[in-house]
What we know:
Layout: E1 7-11, H1 17-26, E2 32-36, H2 48-64, E3 69-72, H3 75-89, E4 95-96, H4 100-107, E5 114-119, H5 121-126, H6 128-136, E6 141-146, H7 150-155, H8 162-172, E7 182-185, H9 194-201, E8 206-209, H10 210-224, E9 237-240, H11 245-255, E10 262-263
Parallel strand pairs: 1-2, 1-3, 2-9, 3-4, 5-6, 5-7, 7-8, 9-10
Helix pairs in contact: 1-10, 2-3, 4-6
D-glutamic acid (DGL) binds next to helix 3.
Amino acid sequence: MPANQPIGVFDSGIGGLTVANAIQKLMPKEALVYFGDTAHLPYGDKSPEAIKYYSLKIAKFLMDEGCKAIVIACNTASSLAYHDLKLFLGAQIPIYSVIDPVVDYMTSSDQFQNIGVIATRATINSNIYAEKIYLQKPKIRVKSLATPLLAPMIEEGFFNDQISGTLIHTYLSDPVLQGIDSLILACTHYPLIRNEIAAYYQPKITIIDNTEIVAKHLQKELLRMDLLNGEEPQPHRFYVSDFTDSFEKSTRLFFGHQIQLQLRQIWD
Ligand code: DGL
């Protein structure tokens, strides 16, 4: 696979653009092909079977687009579809979840002993963070809370306001999260409310946002496989399965500036 081929990145919608943004900041020579499955958003309330089916179709599309590697920029799809996708792609294209690099980061020192995780219902129900952390460091306690209203709230543009303040306060004051020393924002939408969450906790706990950790892990992997692009990159391509003006406008929030989305139907 030539190193000048693009990196495929996908999410249930445009939230995964936070990961795409971190990748392009760290590796400006890399071209991206982004697919946001806006027709099936949100994944957080879908069944595991549906999430696996959608993810496989998207991986096939990104493969056909010539991607040299694929990043699942969605915790929900990473929780439920990563293994199926890895089997499907085999040795052809490396695929990365947003979960494993964060688990490695959290367990690489003794800094964190009581880790909180907030995410969609599907991610929390999968129990994936608790299980993976347990396998690496059984003594670490993991306290997980489903926060299903946060992603739709952010998609609707409610953050840094009274509505987001009330909802964030309500979720974070849940007794389940008491006593944590760190909190994983296990949904690719949540970097947009990172400051509000940090303000709730003051500097008392460490807030972990997956995006930079995932981008750094990808960079290391591409370097290891001799797949880092050294040439002038091709332009990025951004696809969605359902187009509305509001999706396009919201890309500014997630990617830093507004981008042009192309509608692409990949379902039979
Ligand atoms: N971006 C998805 C994630 O990281 C959440 C949004 C959804 O429910 O589709 O889990």
